[in-house]
Write a structure and sequence with these properties.
This protein is of the alpha/beta class. It is built from 15 helices and eleven strands. Strand 8 and strand 9 form a beta hairpin. This is Putative sugar-binding region.
Length: 351
Amino acid sequence: MNREWTAQGGSRENAPLTSKRKLVHMSDSTQRMASDIDLMTEVAMLYYLENVTQEAIAKRFDLSRAKVSRLLKRARDEGIVEVRVLQHPAMNNELELALVERFQLDRALIAVDHSDPDTQRSAVASLVANYLNKTLSDGMIVAVGMGRNVGAVADNVFLPVTRNCTFVCAIGGSLKAGEYMNPDHICRRLALRFGGESESLYAPALVANPELRSILISNDTVRSTLDRARRADMALIGIGDMSENSNMVRMGWFSPQEIAQARLSGTVGDMMGYDFIDIHGQPAVNAIQGRVIGLTVQELFRIPDVVAIASENTKAAATLGALRSGVINTLATTVTNAHTILALDDATRKN
């Protein structure tokens, strides 16, 4: 018995076979489309992954050269093939060497540029994660700052070697920072990736006044955690710029107007989220002076390997100031930032 569903949702029996023929026709069309996609994918894989020439591909599938060329173009147009032009590693090596020599660094980690900020951040963070994987050893202590760049390191650890390390918060937390940026959550994620332990700093990052900071700093629990952070073998810190989209504005530490005023007074950025500097690496006075619970720049000087991360290309001036402070041992940034930093250094160097 033939049955066809009507447009109103009912059915009638002994219906004509027209709809069945349409279904068969549609099925044939779908199969041909799937077959075309399979052919296009196979041609693209042979050409791009196995370096088979277009002429050889044409002979293998009994196609014309023009047909092969059209399939390869279609593969690019439809997103099956993505073509990326990367900077040659030798160019990055030259930039890394230039930064190391100019600023007396131990090392520089330079990532190629990406137009998408998240992809850019992941590229820089991957270099830092790989560096940790090669450098960490049992018993090491890593002091961890806050921010998106530091947080991205924990999310870009691949095939880690298990280490018996301790990741300890180097600054207090903030509810407005969220899990991704808070040092406590970053420490936990790093410990999970590397199989180590994490230690929380049970204190807010920013308090109302210096008197309250003094009280909390003297608390046994807070003092014990910060003491461990001060004894760290390595520190992971972010470099902040003075933009209206900065972490300080998002967390409510500064208003956009206060950030603009700080820029006018010569402040170019911060390290650890609160130690503000000018382009010459000198301390800059700000409204949260003496109100942050965490390691200071002076305490960072005592840590053997301070790894500073700046993925955004808006942070060249801030990164230059941080480099001139002398605190940084390892810099992780982008190709564009590296070029801009070197040019800015030439243009603003004091005689």
